[in-house]
User: Fold these one by one.
Assistant:
Number 1:
Amino acid sequence: MEQLKTGDKAPEFQFTGQDGIVRSLSDYLGKKVILYFYPKDNTPGCTLEACSLRDGYDDLRDRGYEVIGVSADSAKSHDGFRSRFSLPFNLVSDQDKSILNAFGVWGEKKFMGKKFMGINRTTYVIDEKGMIASIIGKVNTKDHAKQVIEEMEK
């Protein structure tokens, strides 16, 4: 699969939101979307990242952004994670890895000398026309909301 890049059309996908409504990425046309991919609910780095986006949520919304998180965790795991940390945005369960593969974030990782398959933490900022405006591969989990704003104001 060819790697996505800035200026490409974001791959279409559907998900069931926390309110039970089935949505598509195309439902967000006319809005900017922060689509962030993270490895696992309730882990230190993923919790920092989610809480940064939660804490910056009002500022992001004021700037016209919607936030959507994606991991391979189950919907039940997402429900607990969202509830535990009062996350105001949708978390998408992609257990079949179709979205992860479409965005090129599922791949080989290394940790403590071992290689394994997993989610490479990445954020895509998608513009109002559904095009990829920015790709953040080196995510600052502690200050991710601020990082996204700074990236888009360059």
Number 2:
Amino acid sequence: MEWGKADSGQATVEFLLAVPLILALGWGVWGIALAGRTAELAGVGARAGARAAALGKSPREAIVEALPASVAKSASVVERDGRVTVRLPVPSAGFNSILGTVQASAGFPVQR
């Protein structure tokens, strides 16, 4: 038996089997990054809304100004007892769907 004859094409087959796994791993990492970014934006929005509420202004307007327009339009805002809670949907990586939601709350003492 000649060296290499029995192994011809093996590297190609292994590569073709590895590519979907690598792509799935990359897609999962991207999804985690999207969730983290969305959580960060929820915190930014909650703090901006709480600052506005403490100063007697509209929390919703402050949140819209603090967040990117694409994110601000889907924000759910609740103000209760001086605390502002912002809930944002986590987008899916590559699909037009929602993976879940993240929320953040913040509050500041009322300034008079």
